[in-house]
UniProtKB/TrEMBL annotation:
GO terms for cellular component: plasma membrane. It is found in: Cell membrane. Keywords: Cell membrane, Membrane, Transmembrane, Transmembrane helix, Transport. It comes from Treponema primitia (strain ATCC BAA-887 / DSM 12427 / ZAS-2). This is ABC transporter, permease protein. InterPro entries: MetI-like (IPR000515), MetI-like_sf (IPR035906), UgpAE/MalFG_permease (IPR050809). It comes from the Bacteria. Pfam families: BPD_transp_1 (PF00528). GO terms for biological process: transmembrane transport. Residues 71-292 form the ABC transmembrane type-1 domain. Coiled coil: none annotated.
Amino acid sequence: MRKNSTLPMKIIFLGPAVFCYLVVFLYPTLRTAFMSFFKVDAITDALAKWSFTGLGNYASLFKSTLFMRSMQNIAGIWFYGGLLVFALGLLFAVILTSGVRYKAFFRAFIYLPNVISAVAMGTMWMQYVYSPRYGLLKNVFGFLKLEKLAAIQLTSPDYIFAALLVAYCFGMVGYFMLIFMAGIEKIPVDYYEVAVIEGASRWKQFVKITIPLMKNVLRTNIVLWTISTVGFFVWSMIFSPLNPEPGTVTPMVYMYQMIFGANMVVTERNVGIGAAVGVLLSLLVVVVFAAATKLIRDDDVEF
């Protein structure tokens, strides 16, 4: 009787959460996966208007030069941006956990770009840093007598991907720095004290103690960085708002244009192809998560 008496309470407390999960997450996910096998003109079209294409939408994606370019773009952002963000984030984390003065101030200062919206940050970089007329970099290069660098228009098609990458990484360093700091501060201080007694240098302590004991943190950051890269959208739209350059097109931009309206990115709207992009990106995150879990293990580490 006691077990049965708790059933109504379970339904009351769990029911809303389960309902929201089914309606907000599970149903859209299954509908998107199902839709990826059909040609759909509008996202609100009834099922009767859908035209079955099988794997045709996926085949069209891999035949699309622009979509493959968008995949190359996020691969570059994931690899080069990941190296830059992880290197700077880990460097700042090590410095700020080494007993430096004004730690709270520097931590907040480095994290500040994450508090500002991506739209505001992107606009700042476009209008005040990369501006070909009065941009910060143009003035700095001019002051240093680097006329060739000052003459480069960083928002031109030849340089816009690099400019976008630098701006995006600037805004992400603080976030991953905090995660690295949390991982470092969790390591017992005794390990470092013993290493100092044994005569180990700072670099050796970092390589032999810090890195091995932060495998789980590194794995988490790789997954979070992958999710962030796969969802790369706002920055691309800010750097090329009307007719995106090939260097700024990402799969999310391609998917958005396929679903909500064609322009220079895509010439014909097809919600089914947009759904196929979403499925592929979801599978990509799952693959990276599985690979990171398999390759980066901390089973042999105890502390």
